[in-house]
Amino acid sequence: MTARVLVVDDVRANVKLLEAKLTAEYFDPIIAMNGLQALDLVDRLLPDIVLLDVMMPGMDGIEVCRRLKSSPRTQHIPVIMITALDQPEDRVRGLEAGADDFLTKPVDDTALFSRVKNLVRLKMLVDELRARAATGERMGFIDNTLGAILEKPGEVMLVDDTGHLAERIAGGLSGRHHLLVVDNVSKALSHATEGHFDLIMVGLDQRSFDGLRLCSQLRSLNQTRHIPILVIAEPEDNERLLRALDMGVNDYLLRPVDPNELMARMNTQIRRWRYAESLRDSVQRSIEMAITDELTGIFNRRYMETHLATLIESAMHRARPTTVLAIDIDFFKSVNDTFGHDAGDQVLRECAARLRNVIRSVDLPCRVGGEEFIVILPDTDQLVGARIAERIRSAIGSAPFIVGSEQTPVTITVSIGVAGLGSVDDTAELLLKRADQSLYQAKRAGRDRVVSDMPDVRRPG
Fold it and tell me: Angle at CA 134, nearest 5°, toward 219 and 40?
């Protein structure tokens, strides 16, 4: 793994040493000799991670970190503070300023690079989410402030069978977060996969199970692979800590647990988790809006055109039938002219709702424009497709629609054309064209009816 690493230190010897070590590990180091220069380089170059000395003249590392984490442009960039200060209150100050980790000089190379790689992996994931979410915003699909972090209490699970950690950790939370304590692996995995946790804490020195094995299991499950994990270990348990970080554990605490450091590290992990989750939600919303008709909630033309071609290719390969229904609301213009466009929108929404209520879960309803709908029926021949079309026609025409501010009952009917896959040379374009031709025949024959492009399955209303 490689990454662009900004090294910030006012002592040139320290800078040169770190630069040489990073280069030897195939990282790309960038150098800043003071806080202001660091802020300028971060803004211009957007490095993957910042290694930041705390004690510097002028603007110290705490203030640099605070400014980086307060900017939506740079708050996702991980910061590791490196300093000669070794008291718990010093670590707490750095973590409260937004630092992702805090290492004391002299720094062990293995520990440093393990943390760098771990944080860079997380940052690359966030970068991908940010890029996708930004694309959605530019396309007008979402209006979302990605930097907004919810400050509500977090849901935290502690896995510990020793009985020593729970009381100390619960006391350190001071009511800020909600804590669930479990004492075995099966309970932990059950709660983790079924619940909505912001953080999972695991003691490595368990009596009845291997804490590292549990961390590995959590990282291998789809439901839990992204949830932050914080492990608690003895100071001399360095080897297992490095293995934990290498498998994707996010952070750690050493015994004895300092309540202030505990709270600072928990807050950091929960904020980072919620930030990533907000990005995932934005991406999901943008995907949904890209393929969904905003008015009716069913699929749009873009999705239909893409998916129909794939379905036809698959159906041809497996020699399976596929049928398409082309649906048009009869005399829809008169609804708009008589009751207004808001009433027309009501009719479109209700038509889509009735349509969805009578088709199967495998069928794909799409609004392709105006009052026109397409329903794709996978693994369905034309005889069955015509029956489904009749069911749709009946569901829409059997009960009046209530429209307008006067709640006026209006009878709405639809005409439906049915077409199914024919020869091996059939395409999505040809199938849609035949469905449209059948729809036009239904319109010419008097509307409120189903017509198929196969004469033996034409069903007038």
Answer: 90
Distance CA 277, CA 281 (A): 6
Q: What is the pLDDT of residues 433-446, one digit of tens each?
A: 999 999 999 999 99
Q: How far is CA 170 from the centre of its chain?
A: 31
Q: Which residues contact 61 (CB under 8 A, 6 or more apart)?
A: 8, 35, 52, 53, 54, 55, 81, 83, 94
pLDDT grade, residue 355 (50/70/90)?
very high
Sole residue written with tokens 């368990």: 206
Q: In what order do the strands lie in the sheet with 199-203?
A: 178-182, 155-159, 199-203, 229-233, 251-254
Q: Tens digits of per-residue pLDDT, 79-102? A: 999 988 777 788 888 888 999 888
Could you tell me where in the chain the CATH 3.40.50.2300 domains are found?
A: 1-107, 141-286
Closest by CA to 83, choosing from 9, 12, 4, 18, is 9
Which structure tokens are listed for 111? 């520990």
From first CA to last CA, the distance across the chain in angstroms is 66
- Torsion angle in degrees (nearest 10) through CA of 30, 31, 37, 41: 0
Closest by alpha carbon to 148, among 274, 282, 264, 287? 274
Distances (CA, A) of 461 to 79, 355, 400: 70, 17, 17
Examine the pLDDT at 396 and tell me if it is beyond 90. Answer: yes
CATH topology of domain 299-457: Alpha-Beta Plaits (3.30.70)
From CA 283, how far away is CA 352, in angstroms rounded?
26
Which residue in the list 89, 167, 236, 371 is annotated as catalytic?
371
> What's the rounded mean pLDDT across residues 358-364?
92
**What is the CATH code of the structural domain delimited by 1-107?**
3.40.50.2300
Q: Is 155 a catalytic residue?
A: no
CA 208 from centroid of its chain's CA atoms: 35
Residue spans in the chain of domains classed CATH 3.30.70.270: 299-457
141-286 belongs to CATH 3.20.20.370: no
Q: At what angle do helices 301-318 and 428-444 cross, to 10 degrees?
A: 110
- Per-residue burial over 127-156, b if 16 or more Cβ lie within 10 Å, else e, is eebbebbbebeeeebbebebeeeeeeebbb
Is the pLDDT confidence value at 148 over 60? Answer: no
Residue 140 confidence (pLDDT) above 50: no
> Is the per-residue pLDDT at 395 higher than 90?
yes
| Full DSSP string of 204-238 | SS-SSS-HHHHHHHHHHSTTTTTS-EEEEE-TT-H
Yes or no: say if 22 and 29 are a contact pair by the CB < 8 Å rule. yes
Mean pLDDT on 383-397: 96
The structure tokens listed for 272 are: 């980072």
> Peptide bond before 256: cis, by omega within 30 degrees of 0?
yes
User: Structure pTM?
Assistant: 0.62
